[in-house]
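Lecture 7, part B: from sequences to assemblies.

Below are the input chains for today's worked example.
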Amino acid sequence: MSASRPRPDGRPRLDQRLLHAALRLLTAADRDLYAEGLSECYRERRLEAESRGRSAVLVLSLRELCGLARFALGRRFPSRWSRRTARSLGFQPKRPVRRTMAQLLSDLKFSLRAFARRPSMTVLAALSLALGVGASTAMFSVVDSVLVRPLPFPEPEELVSVYPTTPSLEGHPTLGGMAERATFSLPEVWTVREQQTVFDGFGAFRWSSTTLSGDGPPEQLDRGLLTPGVLETLRVVPIAGRLLDPQADDPADGARSVMLSEGAWRGRFAGDPSVVGSILVLDDEPHTVVGVLPREIEVAIFDADVWRLITGSSSDDGILDHNVSGAIGRLRPDTSVEQARAEVARILGAIPEHGDHGASVFPRLEDQTRAVRPALLVLIAGAFVLLVVGCANTALILLGQGLDRRQELAVRGALGAGRLRLIGQLVVENGLVTGLGAAGGVLLAAGVSRVLLELAPAGVPRLEEAAIDGRVLLFGIAVAVLSGTLFGLAPAFWLSRPDLASAMGSTRGSSDGRSRLQDALVVGELALATILLVAAALLGRTLIALDGVDPGFDSEQLVAVRVAPPFQRFDRSDEDWSGAIDGYFQNLVDEIEALPAVDAVAVTSVVPLTGDRANNDVVPEGWDPEVSGELIAERRFVSVDFFETVGTRIVDGRGFDVRDDRADAAPAMIVSEGLARRVYGDESAVGRRISFWGRDPATVMGVAEDVRDESLQSPTDYAFYVPARQMGPQTGNLIVRTSSDPAQLGDDIRQRVYAFDPDVPVTSVTPFVELIGDSTSDQRYRARLMTAFGIVAGLFAMLGVYGLTARAVVRRTREMGIRVALGAVGPQVMRLVLRRGLILAAIGAGVGLAISVFATRVVESFLFGVSRLDPVSLLGIALVIAVGSLLACLPPSRRATRVDPTVALRE
Amino acid sequence: MRRRRESTRPSKGAGPETFLPLPHLPFHVLLALAEEPRHGWAIIRAVRQITSGRDNPSSGSLYLAMSRLVERGLIEEAPGAGIATDRSGRRKTYRLTGLGREVLEAETARLATLVRLSEGFSTGGKKR
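Predicted structure of the full complex, as structure tokens:
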């Protein structure tokens, strides 16, 4: 009976296979030499054991396998005996790699011990790197998510935004954006759809709102209106049910079909698939849910709760009167953006009433992110500057620690450690610090990115998707490794220079080259910190300037109230349809006005600072658009008490009054100062006549001061106001003036409106203060982040100054001692130390300011009310750097004054 | 000190003392081979016999010790001394080198000295 006897099926036994596997642990050379002998010993042993039974065989097999593992390991890691004999025999272990591993381990142990002796410095060095890596990685996660990642649709690079252009609006203060990106009318969309040959799908969309009624109180929903072709262009796949189909779901045929968005489906219907086929009552009409659109649609178009088709003949809601808000197309694979643009321009140019419009086509992702791109790029640049400062700080600390150990290094060099060996030791030490920093940074990034999301202004597309995922992690690790290697290796090379040996015996001699490197690092840190702080100061001054702006209305006591009365319940064919709606709305207004906390209620078509836009061509009498250019002005339909309620001054003529507050009253208008100045120059606008929308000319009753109701940054130049009642039934949004706390008003209003009519949703009650705050949230975000980056960088720089000065004091203890012995007094010694720190600070701040003069161009477009060369910001930051550096130098300089000459000289 | 030699051969003149004290397994292996050249399994049996069964090294342990002894030049393969076996054709046998024999003698002498030095003691108790 033999242990190696194969099993009946011809396959080797398990223990044989294990033996072979274990033999594979050996190096090839060892296998050649010993495998045969090992196998034989095993066979013999097994034969012995088999006579003692199965358990003996099992025990033996285990023991032998362990023995083999020991052999394999033992060959790699010499025993103490073989190490000792090897050493005494003067030969080295065979494999340098293994020697290196052992050395690495010992270096690592040494480093850990060294760090344990100076934990604060180690932590500081790692922390500097960690903050830089954390900030830049977190910013990268945001940039990656918002700007870089492709749209979540098939072949996303083919998707483009399509706009008509209005070259005449180029440079218009508030409508300048329309020059490149105007809006299609629906007939234009149909024409482009029919005639185009460059797109594999083209469609347009518009936002509107709708009221959902049912069991509970009515709710206002965001509704997306889509022309046929949008969903097909995106190649979106419904997550339940089917897509809207122009054949089956044409509203003109009486179909009332909607799709839900994923968000609404999960939120309102708990993701119940049976909602497909159910009926929703929207605007008092039953609609059938045919499917659910995935969340991705928000990214490509916008966020809405329900989606509906519009077709060429949709006749309800006056939908056809409005322009769409945007259009998308999918480029055919062989078509360029430029070809598409040319063709759309050609099609539009052939439409007679289209005017001088052209067309523009942009990649969809670029177009969707254009508003946030510059700010994000500036912020990530800021984060990277912080990273560089953090790295410099780490390098500075490592360098300083290394210099403290010059003697040790020199001794080791003299004892035979080669330069490579010294570098190896230093690299391991620095690698440990940078590794710690990198790991900390990646961990920190998760926290920082959460803060970034928390602080972020609303409306940044895909921001909520920003997360520390594989890509970001990879980026963070790459940044960390790169900066760690660079800033860890550089000091190692520097410190291991051969001339270091000359430092033997002189531990306190000055070593100019090395301190020049440190000086350069500190100056660099100071300069970069200065740049970040200057940017932060400019952005901060922008915020202050915005806070100080007079918007042209009393923001303190005003509250914007949006309600959505169920006007659908009034029959349009009814003769008194208009009067009925007007009466109903007036009752609603009266109800709210009756609340004790409410002083006045005005009605307006446009709530300030919310992004509501409405504008028209206006034609003053005697104005020739051919000669003087087209005039486009912001249109507001307001109740006659609007100006008193919001606190906008009438600077010429009179405001509206009861005489104008009738549908059949003589057409009246109030124009903004800007519009009056543009049309009438220095002459008075009062009594002039202006027509718009093809209506009878209205008489200008007065001129209102310019208000900043589109953005706080600049007044709305051209605006005109018309009494709402003259334009049909008075409806719209409410502006409430209250004498009590605006924040408390919401519940009162909701209760009162619910008591008046439970079918009226109160969509929002927003104090104006909040509207103003929201309108500056972008600026606030930028300023906050930049300030955070600047402060951290500034602290690093101060730390650098402190460290350098403290080291210099230690190095010059003997010199100080001599000076004191020769009669120098405290202040003189102190001045000596301070001088050096302050010179560095001056150079750093100077370089920083000089670069800032150019670098602030980057933030120029974000500034308001402050020049990018604002002397207060520039000099203020210089002062901050100077004072900070002075403070950083104080503790070491005070230490210098306490040098005891007798002790210093004896050392 | 500065330039280290990369060779794995021992430097000339490395005396047998440099190997002392020997760990017990290498010592037993040297003892086993001192009688005659042996192959691996025979060494194991010899070690068992020498130690009256107290030491029964696994194949791995044995070959680890042997591989080190080979590298240090204390034992070597015995050329042509292989005998045919039923299965593996030829077994590798090992024998002591001159250095190995010196080391064995030195270690034996060292142990003998130790035994002599400790003769004044017994396991029972202290004797002054």
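Note for the exam: The first strand of chain A starts at residue 159 and ends at 165. Keep this in mind when comparing with the next example.
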